[in-house]
Amino acid sequence: MRYSLHKQAQASLNSGINLRAVVQLPEGEELNDWIAVHVVDFFNRINLIYGTVSEYCTDETCPTMSGGSRFEYLWADGAKYKKPTQLPAPQYVALLIDWIETQINDETLFPISTEVPFPKTFVPLCRKILTRLFRVFVHVYIHHFDRIVYIGAEPHVNTCYKHFYYFVKEFDLVSSKELEPLKEMTARICPDASPVPVRKL
Ligand SMILES: [Zn+2]
Fold first, then answer.
1. Which of 97, 158, 159, 181 could cross-link with 67 by S-S, CB 3.0 to 4.6 Å?
2. Are 169 and 193 in contact (CB under 8 A)?
3. Cβ burial, residue 160 (10 Å; 0-12/13-18/19+)
4. Cα 9 vs. chain centroid, distance in angstroms?
């Protein structure tokens, strides 16, 4: 049992090459469908990852939504928060999750039926969703990684991150400027971030 779990973890840790390839749009697939599926999947997975540290992410430990001392995110949603507002991380993440949930549950934005077309704003909206989701990775990696390591979830989180990173890079969905806070870590865990490497058999 343990052995097979370990093997599984190792496999996912070493799956960078596959992850780089699996994000590519399969032949015959619609790009919007492909993006929609991934946005929903990443939302669910990142939500779960944050759930594993949320007990340790409080107004006291994290009075701002930061990524170290150099990066801080302000919340604005055009509704309750019209101006970018400094919020404690747990509040920021809760608003972010609610906001994304509202978007992906709106069938005019994320149509369920193939008869309903995607809105013209679909890709820009997904860019915004993924950019905001990335901030959760930033906060978790920089402020709560000890907890992730403690519960043994590091390979899982790294795999999710790699998958996310390769996906947003493949379709240019998160700007380099936004990816900056985790640049060094990305170079470490996604060493094959540039061209698609030749698969060794
Ligand atoms: Zn926190």
1. 181
2. yes
3. buried
4. 20
Q: How far apart are CA 7 and CA 133, in angstroms?
A: 29
Each residue of 13-54: pLDDT tens digit? 555 557 888 899 988 888 999 999 999 999 999 999 999 999
> Is residue 167 a contact partner of residue 38, using CB atoms and an 8 Å limit?
yes
Which residue numbers belong to the known binding site for Zn(2+)?
A: 57, 62, 139, 144
CA–centroid distance, 115 to ligand 1, in Å, is 42
- Count how many domains the chain has: 1
- CATH no. for residue 45? 1.20.140.30
Would you say residue 198 lies in a domain?
no
**Binding site: which residues?**
57, 62, 139, 144
Q: How many CB atoms lie within 10 A of CB 151?
A: 11
Ligand 1 centroid to 143 CA: how many Å?
6
CB 96 within 8 A of CB 132: yes
109 pLDDT above the threshold of 50: yes
Instruction: Copy the structure tokens of residue 170.
Output: 């493949």
The structure's pTM equals 0.87
Span from the CA of 149 to the centroid of ligand 1 (angstroms): 15
How far does the centroid of ligand 1 lie from the alpha carbon of residue 58, in Å? 6
Q: Determine the pLDDT at residue 8.
A: 47
Domain of 39, in residue numbers: 30-189
Which of the two residues, 115 and 52, has the higher pLDDT score? 52
